[in-house]
Automatic annotation (TrEMBL):
Organism annotation: Cutibacterium equinum
Classification via PANTHER family: PYRROLINE-5-CARBOXYLATE REDUCTASE (PTHR11645), PYRROLINE-5-CARBOXYLATE REDUCTASE 3 (PTHR11645:SF0)
First-level EC class: oxidoreductase
Keyword check for NADP: yes
Protein name: Pyrroline-5-carboxylate reductase
Compartment annotation: Cytoplasm
Source domain of life: Bacteria
Domain Pyrroline-5-carboxylate reductase catalytic N-terminal: start-end pairs: 4-99
Reaction(s) catalysed (UniProt annotation): L-proline + NAD(+) = (S)-1-pyrroline-5-carboxylate + NADH + 2 H(+); L-proline + NADP(+) = (S)-1-pyrroline-5-carboxylate + NADPH + 2 H(+)
EC number of this enzyme: 1.5.1.2
Length: 263
């Protein structure tokens, strides 16, 4: 995607996205102007990403071809309203805010709006993105998809499923980090050093993800590790008794419902 990019609210998620795109060579730091209200946040962004910064959203958005709304969901419409007067007519606005619908965004600015749910692994070029263009923004959506495919996997979904998909990949990294933490802590409790426990856990998660990426069904992969009456079977029985499946179902339903309540 060529042209100037404004990132309004360059925090954790938008910063990870821009950093990933710069590292992939999809965009250059010179293309980007990022905003944050506090000087300390702007300094951090300038240092880590090498992009220009300003506290003034309108100044950043004025010449931009692509505007990324990176503020928290409650501030997203307010920021779009703030810049709506100065936006180029043919600019594309990408909102990464959980739960904020394209209908709500179009209420603030009647242009090309694309709703995107990224996740933080984009920082290392391994993002997962959910894309739902607003009605009439299909072409803009295609360009956004093209850009995001350079830093991860993109799935386009009808907007009514955007919140459900958010519960998978938007929040998903946090579930995996929690699992990693739990495994490391359990290993330490059994006497392993934290360093050994971390190395083994991370390698296990990464290797398992690669096996899953072959397309083999998770249940088949799991059964390959599970001998009858063996060690893994004993461990899995405890996880099932602990209600791991229903805990995930409840967690993801809660995530989807919370997203739907943010708009
Ligand atoms: N974190 C994730 O894993 C994740 C995943 C997917 C989607 N998202 C979405 O990404 C968005 C941001 O989340 P986050 O976790 O990245 O939050 P965050 O780290 O707090 O980032 C928000 C940034 O916006 C700046 N900001 C706040 N109000 C502003 C304003 N009026 N004008 C300009 N900048 C402003 C903040 O800096 P100042 O306070 O200095 O202004 C901060 O740098 C949310 O809508 C969330 O739903 C997050």
């Amino acid at each position: 995607m060529r042209g100037k990019i404004a990132v309004l609210g360059c925090g954790t998620m938008a910063g990870a996205l821009i950093g990933g795109l710069i590292d992939a060579g999809t965009i250059t730091a010179d293309d980007v102007v990022a905003t944050a209200r506090s000087q300390s946040h702007r300094d951090e962004v300038a240092t880590t990403l090498g992009v220009k910064t300003t506290p003034d959203n309108a100044e950043a958005a004025r010449d931009a071809d692509l505007v990324i709304l990176g503020v928290k969901p409650y501030a997203t419409v307010e920021v779009l309203q703030e810049v709506s007067e100065v936006l180029k007519k043919d600019a594309t606005v990408v909102s990464i805010a959980a739960g904020v619908t394209t209908a709500t965004l179009l209420g603030a600015w009647q242009g090309k709006v694309v709703r995107v749910m990224p996740n933080t692994p984009v920082r290392v070029g391994e993002g997962a993105f959910i894309v739902s263009p607003a009605p009439g923004a299909q072409k803009a959506g295609e360009k956004v998809v093209e850009m995001l495919e350079t830093v991860g996997t993109v799935v386009e979904v009808p907007e009514k499923l955007h919140d459900a998909a958010t519960a998978v990949s938007g929040s998903g990294p946090a579930y995996i980090f929690l699992v990693a933490e739990a495994m490391i802590d359990a290993a330490v409790a059994m006497g392993l050093s934290r360093d050994d426990a971390s190395q083994l856990t991370v390698a296990t998660l990464a290797g398992s993800a690669e096996l899953l990426a072959t397309g083999e069904h998770p249940a088949v992969l799991r059964s390959q590790v599970t001998s009858p009456g063996g060690t893994t079977a004993a461990a899995l029985a405890e996880l099932e008794a602990g209600g791991v499946r229903s805990a995930f179902a409840d967690a993801m339903t809660a995530c989807r419902d919370r997203a739907a309540g943010l708009s």
